[in-house]
Each structure stands twice: as C-alpha cells, then as structure tokens.
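Task: fold both queries, return tokens.
Query 1:
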Amino acid sequence: MKLKYLPNKIKDSWHRNIAVPLITRLIHFFISLGKRNRKSYKPRTLIILRFDAIGDYVLFRNFLELIRNSEKYKGYHITLCGNLAWKSIAETFDKEFVDEFIWINFDKLYKEHSYRYEALKLMADKEGYEVLISSTAARNYYKEDAFVRAITAQEKIGYESRVWENMIASHKQISDKYYNRLISVADYDEFEFYLNQKFFRSLFGSENYMPKRTHFKPISYQLKFSTPDQYAIIAPGAGAWFRRWSTSNFAKISDYLFEKYGIHSVIVGSKADKELANQIMEEAKNKNCFTDLTGVSSLTDLVFLLQKSKITIANESSATHFAVAVDTPVICISNGNHFGRFNPYPEEIAPYCQTVYPPEITEKLEDKRELIRLYAAGSRLNINKIEPQTVVQAIEYLFQKLENSPR
C-alpha cells in the first residue's frame, strides 16, 4: 500500500519544495520589474490579509468589527483579501465591516503556476494602500509573505512568526524585511483566539470593544431543506486523514443518541465527505435516523443548522469552531494536532465544548506545557484510540451540565 502512493508523494514533495519556490522567485522577479518606480499610496486605505483555513477565520472574524470601529482606522476603506474557502461566511456575516473583498483560491495557488502569477500580479498592480495588516501568527513564506511582498503599502504590519511552524529560519530572515512592524509571538502556543487578541491589543492599545469570544450576529435566513425536530450535527470530515475518527465510531454514537434520546443525526461536510457519510449510515444499526447534507449545505447553512442542533459531534475541524461560535454544545474529537493553539478550547470561551483525546494525551492533561511541547507543531497519534464510550461520557457530561445550568 505504501509503494502504491509513493509516486504521488514524491511528485507532491517535488512540487512544493522545488517547483513552487523556483516559480515564486521568477514571478517576484518579473512583478518587481513593473513596480520598481512605484511608490504611490492611496490615503486612508487598509488591506487585511487572512489566508488560513475556515476554522482559523472563525477565530479571527470578530476582530473585523474592532478594526472598523477603532479610532486608528475609523473611516478607512477596508479591503479583506482572503481564502476563497470561506467567502460565503465573510460576505454573509461580515460585509458591514469590509468595503471590498478579494478572493484567492489556494488550491489553485499551489497547483497552477499561472494562477499564482495572475494572483500576485493582480495584487501588485493595484494602487498602493496606506496600511497592510497580516495578523496570521503562523506565517507562510509562499502564502502571506509572498502577497505582503507583492502588495504596495506605506506601512506593513505582521506577526513575528515562529520558525518551527510554517517558516524556516532562512525564509524568515528574508521575509521579516517585507514588514515595517512585527508584533512578537510567544515560543509556546497560545490559543488562536488569544493570539488574535494579543495582536490587536498590541496594535490598538486599549479599545472599548475587544472581542471576548467568537460569535455570529443573528440575521434573517431561511434553510432550503427540512431537518428533524431533534437532531445532532455529525461532522466526520477533517483536513487530514489522521485527524478523522472512524466512521464505525461515528455510527455507534449516532445509534446511541437515537436509542437513548430519540435524537436524529444530520451529517454535514463537503462533497469530499460524501463517502464518509455513506459509510456511517451503512455501519449504523438504525438506518432511518439520518439526514445526509454532505455536499448540499453551505457554510452559511451550517451556522443555522448548528444553532438548532442539540449537540455536535465533530473531528477537530471547522465544525467545532462554528459550534462554539453559535453556543451549541460540541464534542471535539482530536488527536492533539496543534495542541494549545486550536485545542482544547478554554473554558471561559467555550463552556459547552468538550475535547476528547487519545490516552497519550488524556494521561498528561495536567501538564499542558509538556503537551504543547510534544504536539504544538503537529500530532500523528492514532485518533481511533479514542473509544466511543469516551465520547458517550462527554455527551452525558454536557447534557448534565446543561440541565444544571441552562443557558
């Protein structure tokens, strides 16, 4: 089986480690020729770069209101340049804080060199901004920093970044020079939401409005499909295979919720998660307790589906962050990947979020600093060492908590 996938792995490694760096250098060279004599900036304009994944954006997006209403940037024309993956969420919930959106397709950015050239040239050709903010703590030389270099701005502000995440020391030495100001970040991870707080507290000082947790403001919205009266959200997908709990385990949890509480399961995810949904429904004993919305529901739909659900059972993925933001009880099933930065959620931010881990982490939960040292940069622990009974216990704990202290 390993030999079968070896050619693709070699091809991907060559593409990312040789082709992308080489092509990026050539692209920057040709773009720089056209920018050599250009130093004009449009006053009172601000561009914000956020190129990370959907869940990361959920942990950032409430700071847009802070930027819009800050004394420093009040009245500025604000442009958000972001990841196409979360376009629907930003344009639905955050448009009052942004004057202009620019979307970058990051699947194509790495796979199609012509698209990388077009995207970088598009940004290089725009009239200069007064201020550029790139607040991602885990900067990437070929993502955020490549665009910071291409964009003309009088002042460029970013995070210091760490060399052990998405940046090697030699690249950091080069790209640090793209910025006028870098805000320091701790060697050990803080939870991502707190990293965002730290950045903007350093940028603005004391502000009347500093987000204390993530949330979605209520808006008028009509789902285009029906749902059961009582349901749980099941989100079996994740960005990497080693972060996905087995479909047979999800099936057992669905059976448990239906048999004990009469709660149906609504399975959500992208088209890529359709096969996972099929396997869960096939492996469950109760075949009629499912609604499969994989590949059908949008991210905006997910916000409203979660608001009405009794509980969410999800891998450590964007569904967990959405559930917390709409104040829905959620069980996050995690192998400890990026421990400390994205999991576990702090109690004060998410009192109804329970994260379950493999035994290697559960046995050391009192020593958070050691777990950060071991797994902040990534984890390949076997997520399927988490037994269904552990998730059942977490469900019972949350239901009891809700009963004793209703929201």
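Query 1 returned. Query 2:
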Amino acid sequence: MEKNNPDISVIVPLFNEEESLPELCSWIDRVIGEMGLSHEIILVDDGSTDSSWKVIGEIAGRDSSVHGIRFRRNYGKSAALYCGFKEAKGEVVFTMDADLQDSPDEIPQMYSMVKNEGWDVVSGWKQHRQDNKITKNLPSKLYNATARWITGIHLHDMNCGLKAYKSEVVKNIEVYGEMHRYIPYLAKNAGFDKITEKPVHHQKRKYGKSKFGMERFVNGFLDLMSLWFLSTFGKKPMHFFGFTGILMFLVGFVISVCLIITKLVHQAAGIKFRPVTDQPLFYLALVAVLVGVMLFLAGFICEMISRSSSDRNHYNIKEQF
C-alpha cells in the first residue's frame, strides 16, 4: 500500500437515507478515531430521490475523509459496491448499510480479524435479528441454508451488509447484477478461501423503511444458481451441455432402437404387435434425441465463445519469485 493511503475504507451504498447519514458518519469517525487509524468513508448514492446527495455534500464539506459518488439513476446495490470497491484505497475495506442497522462498533474487532488473524473475508452474522420474524427471519434462514449447501461456504448470514475484506479481495472480484449477496462466494472463486464470520449486533431501523421486498429471496436464489453454474462450467461449458446432450441422445436412441427391434421380433414370430408410430414412448424418445443434439450444439457454441474470450487465460497469481 502507498504511504498516503488510509488504513480503512468504509463503503456505504445508500438509497434515500438522508436522515441516517450524519449520525452514521459521525459514529464511524468516532470508532475509527479511537483506534488511532486513518480512514475514508465512501458514500455511494444509488439514485436517491430525497436530499441524500445534499446531505453527503454537507458532511464532506466538514469532513475531508468523506467522499461521495452519485448515480444518475437507481442501478442497485451491486453497482454501488462495484464503484465503491474501485475507488477504495484502504488496506482493509468495510461495507455496511446506511440505515444504522449495522453497528460501526464492530469495526475494531473485524479489522483485527483481517489484519492480525489473516482472514480474507469476515462476514457479519446478525445472530439476533430485529426484523419481522415471519417476513424476514424464516425466509432468510431457508435462503442461507440453500446458499451454504450450494456454495460450500458455511456462513449463517451470507447477505449481511456488514463485512470486512482485505484490499486484494475487492480488487480481484467483479460485483454485478444482484451478486452483492454472494461476495464471499465470488471471493472464494477468485482464490480467497480464508472466509469466516463474526456475530454482530443488529439494530432496529431508526429512519424510513426497508427498500427490499420478498422478491429478493426469489431473485437471490436465481442469482445463486447462475453464479454456481458460471463458476462451475463458465470456462468449460461443453462439460455440462455436451455430457447432458450425449446422455439424452443415447437414452432416446436406445429406446427407439429397442421399440423397433421389439416390433420386428414380434412381426417375424407372427405375434400381434403394436406399430412403433402408435406408441407415445417412441415420440418421447425422438424428443430426447433432438434435445440431446441441440444441447450438444449449444455446448459446442458456448465452448467456441469461451475460447475466444479475452480473459480465458486470466488467473489470480498469489506469489511469484
């Protein structure tokens, strides 16, 4: 790290949080100031329609450690984090929500876990949530159980906004779409596998209301499946499409041949038989053959696209001498 770079960067994506920003920034300043470390706060205004940007300007006018980024429209939390990660200069990077539900008092211990204990990612765990138990807690438990099973990362709260990262982590991952929920998985796929969690204090929302509805669980599951597929078969699509296509083709082909042979044997023996074209199984077999061929061709096309990609040989090198 360069000498003038801060010790800590705190990235706060926000949307219509004008009431909470002064209190949050003051709280972060106090906590990190007591640690005796330098820091920067990057507030990313995700197209707010209230006075959030005006408030950010007022805070930055009083505090040189505060920086603001403003989107022309609402792009989503992933876009806000991506831009924040790009601008962050701290040795340890924190993310937290702007609604005061994440406590800056957790920063010192999480910083120590990254800096002194060597963890790549420390994810907050809202062990005792202050949300509605029916609409938030239960779906969240099911969602996190599914995420643990698919990703192999044993975190109780994958989507917690309060996280700490080594700077190298945020500089080597790309957050897009709605993938902010799976940053630990993105980090793992980039080779940063020292991931742990810390129980954190979760507070009730003090101002405004939540910007996320129940649809986030459905979207989150679909994003998880997309990420799992891309991380598993992204650079070898033929392994999935080709194998599945060949399997379906063989199943359909074998069934078709068996039906034809059975018909010929019965016909030769003078046994009453049912015409092959009168049997629904024959048409299902033909569908399997056609789908198998299409999957194989899809795999071949995806493989050609993958091999012509500019980052096909992009690898994260940890050390070299």
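Both queries returned. Flag for query 2: The domain at 8-233 is CATH 3.90.550.10 (Spore Coat Polysaccharide Biosynthesis Protein SpsA; Chain A).
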